[in-house]
């Protein structure tokens, strides 16, 4: 199962690397996007819960590292106003490029 790291800049300028057990984080966050602290926390929680469930489905137990990532995010988020901006600087690895569609014959 490929894991992912997402790097964010908090309203105070601090930069944090967050870890996800799955590339599913790409379904919830966009590289270069800015979210409010509240929205970023909600989206991150959804992504990390989904990633943890994928681990559970595959290995039979939840991903504790995913829970630790969410704890880190929630602790940082609590130090900022809910409407303050959080910027997603990087999602790594990027999703594989889509294969070009074959031209009709």
Automatic annotation (TrEMBL):
Protein name, UniProt field: Repeat protein (TIGR04042 family)
Taxonomy, superkingdom: Bacteria
Database matches in InterPro entries: CHP04042_MSMEG0570
NCBIfam families linked: MSMEG_0570_fam
